[in-house]
Amino acid sequence: MKIENNQLLPQYLMYKEEYLKKVEEVLESGWYVLGNEVKNFEQEFAEYNGAKYCVGVASGLDALILAFEALHLNPGDEVIAPANTYIASIMGFTRNGLVPKFVEPDEYYNMDATKIEEVIGPKTKAICVVHLYGQIANMPEIMKIANKYNLKVVEDCAQSHGASINGKKCGTWGDVGCFSFYPTKNLGGFGDGGAIITNNKEIDDEIRMMRNYGSKKTYYFEKVGYNSRLDELQAGLLRVKLQHLDELTDDRRNDALRYLNELKNPKIKLPKLKFGEAGHVFHLFVVEVENRNAFIQYCEKNEISLKIHYPQPPHLSDAYKYLGYHRGDFPVTENMADHIITLPLYNGMLSDEVKYVIDKLNCF
Ligand SMILES: Cc1ncc(COP(=O)(O)O)c(C=O)c1O
């Protein structure tokens, strides 16, 4: 049996009729940018998350760039961010001239809230929280610190659509929540897309204007903006998928819980849940193994496809060489990067396929 790490076709086929109907509806409408589909998606996504406002943009990275721009911090100000994350989380604010202060992860792979205060200095103005792999970070503790030091909070929810603590969804704890709808994401479109959610009207107004050349009124421009609009086709297709998001999340969670309950190999360190099942939407199922090369070879032999999210932490990337960090600066993160491995998990994965992976991995 060959097991893919991820596949997008099965979940398209699940709702194929609805998608095709929506495509036809949008194409026949004769209106393709900033129309009713975007407007309705924004309303529905805000409501789904329990936020007042939502603005659709062109990608998750744009959502982060626009969110930080709307906070009006000064170049050189510092932003506390997880050392262990996808590099786009960091690019969102460094593009605004802001400087990262990295914090090592806790045992749940998210920023360790107990280590945040150590890096707060006079230039610290914000925290960029990432809910990595689908698990919500320790928002109650992070918000306590943010409030104590008067820091803005941007949540990177690109991997965590719908993850919550006591019913309060990610993206609604801080000032702004940023989402990606890249096709592999839990709420993935059929191309690029992103959104921000907020309860702050000024932030909503500003991002709404900036995504459209800095214009509120057609052909009148208040600021030098961007072209970063979610298009009608993506918005329409995302509306279809949003209606099924909770069942898609349950489907992922069921497979993930089977891995958690049935993988019984001491050589494979399983992820832990910090805030119960609701706190994790299992965008990725990441485990740790001591001898990763041997594990990869074993899985290759058994036709189980693996990925590494991510092999190189941002502070060691060429992109951030200018910050002057070296190997050894963030040992917890670096050790994770050397041992993590992502098991197959996607919507539409068959029960027999999950069982095959479990059986094979228990024999490693
Ligand atoms: C944590 C995180 N932040 C930001 C992004 C950027 O999203 P996008 O690819 O839509 O720009 C991604 C995904 O690619 C991500 O995983």
From TrEMBL:
Q: Which InterPro entries match?
A: DegT/StrS_aminotransferase (IPR000653), PyrdxlP-dep_Trfase (IPR015424), PyrdxlP-dep_Trfase_major (IPR015421), PyrdxlP-dep_Trfase_small (IPR015422)
Gene3D superfamilies, sorted: Aspartate Aminotransferase, domain 1, Type I PLP-dependent aspartate aminotransferase-like (Major domain)
Q: Which organism is it from?
A: Holdemania massiliensis
Give the similarity note. Answer: Belongs to the DegT/DnrJ/EryC1 family.
Q: Name one GO molecular function term.
A: pyridoxal phosphate binding
- SUPFAM superfamilies given for it? PLP-dependent transferases (SSF53383)
Query: Would you tell me the protein name for this molecule?
Result: Aminotransferase class I/II-fold pyridoxal phosphate-dependent enzyme
- What's a Pfam family in this record? DegT_DnrJ_EryC1
GO biological process: any one?
Answer: polysaccharide biosynthetic process
What are the protein's UniProt keywords? Aminotransferase, Pyridoxal phosphate, Transferase
- Keyword Mitochondrion attributed: no
Modified positions (N6-(pyridoxal phosphate)lysine) are K185
Q: Which residues form the active site?
A: K185 (proton acceptor)
